[in-house]
Amino acid sequence: MKLLVLISLVYLLGSTEALKVLVVFPYPVKSLSILGTGAVRHLLNAGHEVTYITVFPLKNMPTKTFRQIDISTNLELLKKDESMTMGFVLEHKLEKNDALQIQNFALEGAKATFQHESVKKLLQDPNERFDAVITDLIESEVFAGLAVLYDCPMIWLYSMGAHWQVLRMIDRGTNPAYDPDYLSPAMTPLSFLERVDELWARVKWQFLKTFITQPEERKIYEQTIGPLVAKRGRTLPDYEEVIFNASLIFGNEHDAVRDRPSTPQNFKYIGGFHVEEPVKPLPKDFQDLIDNSKHGVIYFSMGSFLKSNSLPKPLIAELLKMFGELKQTVIWKFESDLPDVPKNVHIVQWAPQPSILAHPNVRMFISHGGLLSSIEAIHFGMPTIGVPVFFDQFTNVNKAVENGYALRVPLSHNLPKDLKVAIDTMLKDDTFPKKAKELSSIYHDRLSKPGVELAHWVEHVVRTRGAPHLRSPAWRVPLYQRLYLDLIALVLAIVSLFFYIVSSLFKKTPKKNDQKKRN
Ligand SMILES: *[C@@H]1O[C@H](CO)[C@@H](O)[C@H](O)[C@H]1NC(C)=O
């Protein structure tokens, strides 16, 4: 009997500690969903219950502690947009994405998610309760409404580093004079024109946000969350208050990245948490292929989002020919079968990237410079050739080049020739692998693994009811106070009053003299 009581007590204590967490990754981008999956995995490992709203549903998951809501219909959002392919970028030579395009992408993702029948069903259930909401943050804050609905802390998981769009939500935007936008290829220190350009980009972004996308997001918040909060007997706080009320933001970056702006205590770097450890063993065919490559392996992948087969056929043929002339084995991740593939080139539609990068016989990684690939390159200390296409890839590759373990090659019709030069340079010069290993050791030199940290901070935020002690004091101070515009206005008022009095005195004195003279 005593034992039974003890067992049930232990069980009770254990179960009260398990949190119910809602994890929302609403965007149809595979690499973002890899981050979502990482968060889910670490939360489940820490013993919590997870409800996961996802575009890419997971297989073979535990049924007791995990439930997923499939919103794969959001994939439609990308089908409309042909500008998101390599072929398009090649022809139009884009160096920068349009700020409105990205804000709209985030807005459309939010709209589609809140209108999804399965999501509606979840939100409308009056008995549903969560201890924390974790949501992917692109450029729409409207998901903060979920934390209002469940009356729990809001945690964002940001796929990039400490950018100003994110910091402004919990602290203040950084200074554009030394912190270029993530869409900007500019590197610090900035020239005069670059500084002007950066300032202009922010003014433009904020203008679009305030007058175009934010009013739409407010509408979603008031129309979708409003009635549900009312049903739970509470009044809906103002949207503006809600979006600046996050308890914590996770940043997907790490200490081996230089030139990061200072961040408040509730911004936590957990870059690398998506990499599963220990690394899974390679499938036998890959293992044999890489083991038996006498001159090493070059791994070429443009990520999961970019479709390589949107490249022109002749360019693909030239690339194959160039790879064919190398002594190394080339593993090229490509979505479809190709004709006339040289013997040393292996086209694969799927590749276990982390396990490949972990193999000592792999000599370099040719990559689009997406953030996950960039992190994995550092995690495994792999020299890289970056071929950035869009979004933050230019910034990532530029930083990698500056850090000395990467070369940058532009996406152009001259890609095969340029790539050949870069490959030859990299094979000859051993400073690239040395630098990569050095950064990798900085990256791994931390107190705890990033996944452990993720679970810890989620628990901390819930235990301390939103962790108000971590918040920055700057977040409560409006811009005009921060810039002392009120003081400047006061000084200007006093100075002009002074001049007014003095000038009116002077006006009067000559009059008196005049009168005296006349007298
Ligand atoms: C802000 O967040 C805290 C902590 O989660 C919460 O207690 C509070 O109700 C939130 N305020 C608003 C206006 O949502």
From TrEMBL:
Pfam families: UDPGT (PF00201). Gene3D superfamilies: Glycogen Phosphorylase B (3.40.50.2000). PANTHER family: EG:EG0003.4 PROTEIN-RELATED. InterPro entries: UDP-glycosyltransferase, UDP_glucos_trans. Belongs to the UDP-glycosyltransferase family. One of its GO terms (molecular function) is UDP-glycosyltransferase activity. The keyword Transmembrane helix applies. It comes from Mythimna separata. This is UDP-glucuronosyltransferase. Keywords: Glycosyltransferase, Membrane, Signal, Transferase, Transmembrane, Transmembrane helix. It comes from the Eukaryota. Residues 1-18 form the signal peptide. The chain crosses the membrane at residues 483-506.
